[in-house]
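Field log, afternoon session.

UNIT: design team B
ACTIVITY: writing a sequence onto a fixed backbone
BACKBONE:
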């Protein structure tokens, strides 16, 4: 398991490190972590660990399934011309193509949600579900752990939104592709009729 994950990160993550790290979703996650560190004991002393983790596990599991389904559909695009168009389309200055980027968005979002599910299961196993998230007199270590988990879950939420937006953008490109195809077909039909 660790070797394929390492290979995935090297092959897919390293070439896209800027689009992973230097993004608004990363900065929002860092901001949420900072808020938990600075104000967590004032604002988050009521929620129970069990309630939060089970809700987050349910969300992350659904998002993970969505991303795996989206990745599968993206791998089996029925329109060969559209897949070829995506595979040959590159943004200026980028080494990857649009098809590879689409697959990466789904796979990266799935990976971060998989990590969130794993992390949240560890939280359930190592803590009492009835205790509050940041009870009075909690340790600094607990505050850091809660802040990091809150930041990671925030990153997951933001990344899922990016995935939905990307899917919408691909849909818009596909609609344009279909319209162009239909227009070309009609133009060919008209030129054949004129002859």
């Amino acid at each position: 398991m660790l070797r394929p994950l390492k290979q995935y990160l090297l092959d897919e993550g390293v070439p896209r490190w800027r689009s992973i790290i230097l993004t608004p979703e990363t900065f929002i996650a860092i901001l949420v972590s900072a808020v938990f560190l600075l104000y967590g004991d004032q604002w988050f002393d009521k929620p129970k660990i069990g309630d939060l983790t089970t809700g987050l596990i349910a969300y992350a599991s659904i998002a993970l399934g969505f991303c795996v389904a989206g990745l599968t559909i993206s791998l089996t695009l029925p329109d060969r011309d559209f897949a070829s168009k995506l595979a040959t389309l590159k943004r200026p200055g980028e080494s990857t193509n649009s098809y590879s980027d689409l697959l990466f968005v789904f796979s990266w979002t799935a990976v971060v949600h998989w990590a969130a599910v794993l992390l949240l299961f560890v939280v359930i196993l190592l803590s009492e579900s009835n205790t509050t998230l940041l009870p009075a007199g909690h340790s600094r270590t607990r505050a850091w752990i809660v802040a990091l988990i809150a930041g990671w879950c925030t990153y997951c939420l933001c990344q899922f939104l990016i995935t939905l937006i990307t899917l919408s953008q691909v849909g818009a490109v596909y609609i344009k592709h279909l319209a162009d195809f239909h227009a070309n077909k009609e133009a060919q039909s008209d030129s054949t009729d004129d002859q």
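LOG NOTE: The radius of gyration is 22 Å.
NEXT ACTIVITY: expression trials, pending approval
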